[in-house]
Every structure is written in C-alpha cells, then in structure tokens.
From TrEMBL:
GO biological processes: prosthetic group biosynthetic process
Matching Pfam families: CitG
Enzyme class, UniProt record, top EC level: transferase
Name by which UniProt lists this protein: triphosphoribosyl-dephospho-CoA synthase
Organism in which the protein naturally occurs: Rhodopseudomonas palustris
Record has Acetylation as a keyword: no
C-alpha cells in the first residue's frame, strides 16, 4: 500500500496539463514550488504510508483507535515534509488523506486478505468517524 501511495503521488505531479497545479512543464499558480520540490518531498514522506498501513494491519481494536497513532506518524512526517520543501506546503493534504487510506487498507487486509476498494473506504470512514 505504501508503494501504491508513492506511485500515485509521483504520477499525479507528472501529469500535464493541470490548470493552477504543478506539472513537469509548469509551476501552475505556485511561485514557491515546482516538480523537483514535489519529487524531493515525495521521497521524504514515502515511508509514512508504509508505517500507516502497518498500523492498520496490526491494530485489532476499534477502527477509531487507529486514528491517534496514524496522526502521530503523520505529524512526524509533516516535519520531514516541511524540512524537505524549505517550509512549502507541497503535500500536506496527500500526507493526511493517503495516511488514512493506507491505514484503512491495512485494516481491511487484516479482515480480508483481498479487500475491495469499498471495504477500504468503509474502514477509512470508520477510522475518521466524528473527525469532521
């Protein structure tokens, strides 16, 4: 799951055109980031997704109890993200969303060796219940 998250991030930044967003040919609406910034921060945060998936895979309790350790890991990697980008918010949204998704995939795999996307999304909803 962690590798799939990293692949998704790298493929997304490689796509062109995306009006207003960073691509290989454009900084979009961003004066402070480019594709290289995204590549460097992607490398910095890639292990986060493996760790979140492992949390989901090994946590046998209630789904909501997965969120605190995933958040703690996310905070650690947010520091690395900001250091790798010199303080530019390149991928905080992806860090959060994919961290939750990786944990949900781990939980779904714990319950079913070949989980469907529907099962993964249900786990993500359970993990984040009451968050918003």
């Amino acid at each position: 799951m962690g590798s799939a998250c990293l692949s998704g991030i790298l493929l997304e930044v490689s796509a062109h055109p995306k009006p207003g967003l960073v691509t290989p040919r454009s900084m979009g609406a961003h004066a402070d980031m480019d594709q290289q910034t995204f590549m460097l921060t992607s490398a910095a945060i890639a292990p986060c997704f493996h760790r979140c998936a492992a949390i989901g895979l090994t946590h046998g309790g209630e789904a909501a109890a997965v969120l605190p350790p995933v958040r703690a890991v996310g905070r650690d990697y947010d520091v690395l993200l900001m250091a790798a980008s010199n303080g530019v918010n390149t991928q905080r949204g992806a860090l959060f969303a994919l961290g939750i998704t990786a944990a949900a995939a781990g939980r779904a795999h714990h319950h079913n060796s070949a989980p469907t996307s529907t099962q993964i999304f249900a786990e993500a909803a359970a993990i984040t219940a009451g968050l918003v």
